[in-house]
Amino acid sequence: TKTMQNQHAPIPELYVSHESAQKLKVEAADLPSWDLTPRQICDLELLMNGGFNPLKGFLSEEDYNGVVDNMRLADGTLWPMPITLDVSQKFADSIEPGQDIALRDQEGVILAILSITDRFTPNKAKEAEKVFGADDIAHPAVNYLHNVAGPVYLGGPIIGIQPPMHYDFRARRDTPNELRAYFRKLGWRKVVAFQTRNPLHRAHQELTFRAAKECQANLLIHPVVGMTKPGDVDHFTRVRCYEAVLDKYPAATTTMSLLPLAMRMAGPREAVWHGLIRKNHGVTHFIVGRDHAGPGKNSAGEDFYGPYDAQDLFKEFEEEMGIEMVPFKHMVYVQERAQYEPADEIEEGVTVLNISGTELRRRLAEGLEIPDWFSFPDVVSELRRTRPPRSKQGFTVFFTGFSGSGKSTIANALMVKLMEMGGRPVTLLDGDIVRKNLSSELGFSKEHRDLNIRRIGYVASEITKNGGIAICAPIAPYATTRRAVREDIESYGAFVEVHVATTIEECEKRDRKGLYKLAREGKIKEFTGISDPYDVPENPELRLDTDGVDVDYCAQQVLLKLESMGLIGAE
Ligand code: PPS
């Protein structure tokens, strides 16, 4: 019963009282301040509300070294993950240990005060090797460490002023103490938690319910809504999916709470970290599956961790952590018996059905059937709403080529043909239109051209995100800039680069606007193809040779390309 009392008793938070907070906030306005990154905001929230108990702030250098080297703070306490405040060199140079700084959210609201005790430059290669298992940027956290995180870490205790603001799913968010109080109120003594960053399907429902039954515990679905693996289904969609699955458990056995954690995908160390966080939330049992918090493949195409490394490490520290591991059974559907069963309990000769994550994404992308044995109809329709098939998603067609190559004319013809087909709104971002409405102050230096293209890319990415078709037709002479725009857009939909490959000789011969003549006479400076560079696209989705062919034919070729990419076509 001692453990039960501990499990329900409040754990320490780092917040000051309401009155002190108001006062501190006013005083903190004069302190040097650091604008927290999204990941730092997640870390700070769990530091302040006790989710990262026993941490009292961002790690000091001594604690950091202990955590990196052997998963222990300087005083010997088990803690597997470096929780550090990474800052720019410039900011680090502007402050001194001994000083207090204000930590602000992205709108400038002061959330906490950090009393700096330590300022140090970490050995990131070592951190990567020790914590994540390899200094390989195919690992999302290693990539973050090298390419996003600042070079200097600040350590020291935190004084919490207010939690970060959340406007979404407020009723589903609980601090560790709120969950503890909830379990106490309901008389839940044994609680098994399920950690997830993916939508739940039938197999998950089966396995979590079985896990709860086996340890005679109540069940907490505890999904991460802070930061997960890049490319995951967004948390808004996932939470709507989870709510649909929640109805499938017997009433009063199961609850759900959202965890604002920024995951690192650190496999074994992450599993131990997750366990400690759940323990802080009043949980007694924790489900650890195959490849728990796995980061995917390394740059040699192999797994970073063995499939059961996380279970092994968790088991090693289970007693010290005071939370019991429930090993995840891999559940598969047995067709003959129309039910899910643990894969290791199935005899030879029966038909086992399975749909992998990749296959599920393919079926969603192509609008194909997803059977009822695999998932719940409500979950599937939520996923379909968020990930419509390609033929209903937005996309961008990006023409590039010399002035007078025919970009605008072909782009116009394409727009009209797409409007004739209907279904999605179409916007033409022609060079002239953009330079009039978005970029009227810009000239033709490299810097200005890049700015112009980035603006076009931004507007096109918004259109693409919202399910429309953006047709862009600037010269866009620089390959690196075109690539940056492609990357912005591809997170929302397809980017179709069309090189209008009319030669400079032909453009000059046509000289529709008389600009080439002026350029030759030196009356227009920095003229693309005459006195300014043009990087020929190396791998465009389509290259149009306009020599001796009419506009209609060119536009037709683009349409055929779009069709072959699945972007337009039969309903
Ligand atoms: S860029 O490089 O992508 O930002 O250029 P863009 O916005 O497409 O603008 C190109 C049009 O501007 C006219 N123009 C020039 N083009 C190239 N170089 C110089 N120095 C220049 N000065 C003016 C020209 O008419 C281009 O129009 P298009 O429609 O391409 O013929």
Give a brief rundown of this model.
The protein is an alpha/beta fold and 571 residues long. The strands form four sheets. Strands 1, 2, 3, 4, 5, 6 and 7 form a seven-stranded mixed sheet that branches. Strand 11 (285-288), helix 12 and strand 12 (324-327) form a beta-alpha-beta unit.
Topology (SSEs and partners):
Elements lengths: L1 H7 L9 H11 L4 E3 L2 H11 L8 E2 L2 H10 L14 E3 L1 H6 L5 E5 L5 E6 L2 E3 L3 H9 L7 H8 L4 E9 L15 H11 L4 E6 L5 H13 L3 E6 L11 H12 L7 E3 L10 H14 L4 E4 L20 H13 L2 E4 L3 E4 L4 E4 L9 E2 L3 H10 L10 H10 L8 E6 L6 H15 L4 E5 H7 L8 H20 L3 E5 L5 H12 L3 E7 L3 H7 L4 H6 L21 E3 L6 H14 L7
Parallel strand pairs: 1-4, 8-9, 8-11, 9-10, 11-12, 16-18, 16-19, 17-18, 19-20
Antiparallel strand pairs: 2-7, 3-7, 4-5, 5-7, 6-7, 13-14, 13-15
The chain binds 3'-phosphate-adenosine-5'-phosphate sulfate.
Structure description:
- The structure is a single chain.
- The longest helix is centred in the C-terminal third of the chain and has 20 residues, at 446-465.
- By secondary structure, this protein is α/β, with parallel strands linked by helices.
- It is built from 21 helices and 20 strands.
- The model has no long low-confidence stretch (mean pLDDT 95).
- The strands form 4 sheets. Strands 1, 2, 3, 4, 5, 6 and 7 form a 7-stranded mixed β-sheet that branches. A 5-stranded parallel β-sheet has the order 10-9-8-11-12, with helices on both faces. Strands 17-18-16-19-20 form a 5-stranded parallel β-sheet, with helices on both faces.
- Helix 12 links the parallel strand 11 and strand 12 (324-327).
- The structure holds 3'-phosphate-adenosine-5'-phosphate sulfate (PPS).
- 3'-phosphate-adenosine-5'-phosphate sulfate is lined by residues 403-404, 408, 431-432, 435, 444, 449, 452-453, 474-477, 513, 515, 524, 526-528, 532.
